[in-house]
Amino acid sequence: MKNTDRITLKGVIMHFKTITRHRHLVMKNCFKMGLYFQGLTHDLSKYSPSEFWNGARYYQGTRSPNTRERELFGYSRTWLHHKGRNKHHFEYWIDFYKMGDGENHGIVPCRMPDKYVAEMIADRVAACINYRGSEYDSWDSWNYYQKEKVVSKYLVHKDTLNKLEFFLKMIGEQGEAATFKYIREIFLKGKDKGRWERELEESLN
Ligand SMILES: [Zn+2]
Question: Domains in the chain: how many in total?
Answer without folding.
Answer: 2
